[in-house]
TrEMBL record:
Protein name: MFS transporter
Organism, scientific name: Halalkalibacillus sediminis
GO cellular component, one term: plasma membrane
Pfam families: MFS_1
Primary localization class, coarse: membrane
InterPro entries xrefs: EmrB-like, MFS, MFS_dom, MFS_trans_sf
Signal peptide: none
Limits of the Major facilitator superfamily (MFS) profile domain: 22-468
MF terms (GO), sorted A to Z: transmembrane transporter activity
Membrane-crossing segments per the record: 20-40, 60-80, 87-111, 117-138, 150-170, 176-196, 208-229, 235-254, 275-300, 306-328, 340-359, 365-391, 412-430, 442-463
Length: 475
């Protein structure tokens, strides 16, 4: 198969290709990349026992994945403009599959950590690349529906991860987690080889080593600092050093990108007001969503005595509901735009977050399941519609940068949200009052989540031009 970059187009300007098999390949790749990110949490105690690790050491298996993932995402816009769609996707999936194999057969922690780095380097390319391809192959009036399918993956994979992981590690060795993912990755590579076509246009930007180093230190420093702050505290020297280096380097990176004719990551896209606004709203929704996914399992396992499998099971109905709703909200977006979907969704998110501020030792499994499902329903009305509305405002040439920026901001929001909510939960806990005192910390973390959701709700009223067919604002 050739690597020609000649792209046949339809009358609407989109590439002339069969979209259904393409969607299957892309969604499968994104699904296992996101699923893999959430599988390991439940298995860490088993890995610690088997490889004789401390909790701090084992946590690096999670942290390194998010760190490398977050470093690769901003660079993806540059890679999309330099390499063909097929080559980049096959390379990313190849790295991911190789990393999965290394993890499965790893005899010690060092090899296992190396496998996670390989996995993350591939996964960090897959998501923004997939988003870019979807926006290029679908006409503007069908992008909501396409992004709804993408949203199904983003919602469903992280929620079934802990449940599936809990089941596998109770029945089989922890290596089974990687042996389950590996065949799917290999099958996706084979399908992509025969189905995937080149749809992105190459502009051959020059490699700028300084920008790549600055991006790595800037985003990596912030992500690492926020990731460990929730566990070790904001005053820890690692956190202060990491956040300081990250912030200073990121400022240097941004100023350099604004001076370059062909930057690695185009920060000028924030001149498109609706893109900037919807990216902010998406970050707010992601902070509250990731907070629930992190805080609720801790509350259930450490304070109410549920198993890891049961806490994963509690999250499952919300994931299923969100998965079902994403394609529906995608169609609603194509018809009505994002504004009122976002307003309704964020209202529901605010109310349900408020309902989690009164948890007690008597709180039932059913209450947690129903309220969490309602929260996920609200998030399904926000995440993909606002993302699509924002990216719709960008011209085609900026689409890779918009996708990379959107995914980068989401990664940062996830790290910041987790750190803030875990810190509030820890600092506001009153251990002298026993379990009830610990639950007070959980309630306070959801008070913060409610405030953040309320801010998002206020911003949603300012969404304009979110209906398909509106031309992007001029540069």
């Amino acid at each position: 198969m050739t690597e020609s970059n000649d792209i046949e187009t339809n009358e609407d300007g989109t590439p002339s290709i069969n979209r259904i098999p393409l969607m299957i390949v892309l969604i499968s790749g994104a699904f296992i990349a996101i699923l893999n990110q959430t599988l390991l949490g439940t298995a860490l105690p088993h890995i610690m026992r088997d490889l004789n690790l401390t909790a701090n050491t084992a946590q690096w298996l999670q942290s390194i994945f998010m760190l490398v993932n977050g470093i690769m995402i901003p660079i993806t816009a540059f890679l999309i403009e330099r390499y063909t769609t097929r080559r980049l996707f096959l390379t990313a999936m190849g790295l991911f599959a190789l990393g999965t194999l290394v993890c499965a057969i790893a005899p010690n922690f060092t090899v296992l950590l190396s496998g996670r780095v390989l996995q993350a380097s591939g996964a960090g390319i897959i998501l923004p690349l997939m988003q870019t391809i979807l926006f290029l192959v679908f006409p503007i009036e069908k992008r909501g529906q396409a992004m709804g399918m993408f949203g199904l993956v983003i919602a469903f994979a992280p929620a079934i991860g802990p449940t599936l992981s809990g089941y596998l590690v109770e029945q089989f060795p922890w290596r089974s987690l990687f042996y389950v993912v590996l065949p799917i990755a290999i099958l996706d590579i084979i399908l992509a080889y025969f189905i995937l076509k080149n749809v992105t246009e190459r502009t051959f930007p020059k490699v700028d080593p300084v920008s790549i180093i600055q991006s790595t230190l800037g985003f990596g420093g912030l992500l690492y600092g926020f990731s460990v702050a929730g566990n070790v505290g904001w005053g820890n020297w690692q956190v202060i050093t990491s956040l300081s280096i990250g912030a200073v380097t990121l400022i240097l990176f941004i100023s350099r990108q604004l001076r370059l004719k062909k930057p690695i990551l185009e920060f000028r896209i924030f001149k498109y007001k609706m893109f900037a606004l919807t990216t902010g709203i998406g970050m707010v929704a992601f902070i509250t969503m990731i907070g629930g996914a992190i805080i609720l399992p801790i509350f259930m396992q450490d304070m109410l005595g549920f198993t890891a499998f049961e806490s994963g099971l509690m999250l499952l109905p919300g994931a299923i509901l969100m998965g079902i709703m994403n394609p529906i909200t995608g169609r609603l977006f194509d018809k009505f735009g994002a504004k009122w979907l976002a307003v309704c969704g964020l209202t529901l998110l605010t109310v349900t977050s408020l309902m989690f501020t009164n948890l007690t030792t008597e709180t039932t499994f059913m209450y947690l399941t129903i309220v969490n499902a309602a929260r996920m329903f609200g998030i399904s009305m926000v995440m993909m519609p606002v993302t699509t509305a924002g990216l719709n405002q960008l011209p085609k040439k900026l689409m890779p940068h918009g996708s990379a920026m959107n995914n980068t901001m989401r990664q940062i929001a996830g790290a910041v949200g987790t750190a803030l909510l875990v810190t509030i939960m820890t600092n506001q806990a009153i251990p002298s009052q026993g379990t009830s005192g610990l639950i007070h910390g959980v309630n306070m973390s959801f008070v913060l989540a409610t405030i953040i959701a309320t801010i998002g709700l206020g911003l949603a009223f300012f969404i304009k031009h979110s209906r398909p067919g509106i031309d992007p604002e001029p540069e």
